[in-house]
Design brief:
The protein is mainly alpha-helical. It is built from three helices and two strands. The chain is 27% helix and 4% strand.
Length: 92
């Protein structure tokens, strides 16, 4: 892993061009300054409820978006995180 270097790419095209170089990170992708981003479309051509619709529902759900997040990609919707705070005495 120490021998791998990430290449910065110049943002020279599009509406947000500024001539600066950016590395592929979630923040640069979300801001739209990294130029090599592409949308992912899920097309369902099944006439009824089936495996295709179930898979697309899984991808757009909380667990599917968390997979994108853990893979280092930018999810369409950021998965929520619930934090439960308890007092120390409530564990007895």
């Amino acid at each position: 892993m120490n021998k791998i270097r990430t290449l910065s790419v110049e943002n020279a095209l599009g509406a947000k061009k500024d001539g600066l170089f950016y590395k592929p990170s979630q923040s640069n992708i979300s801001l739209g300054v990294y130029p090599f981003t592409r949308p992912i479309y899920v097309l369902n051509y099944q006439p009824n409820m089936g495996l295709g619709l179930g898979f697309s529902a899984f991808l757009t759900g909380d667990r599917g978006q968390r997979i994108f997040l853990k893979a280092g990609l930018l999810p369409a919707t950021m998965p929520g995180r619930d934090i439960i705070i308890r007092e120390e005495n409530s564990l007895n």
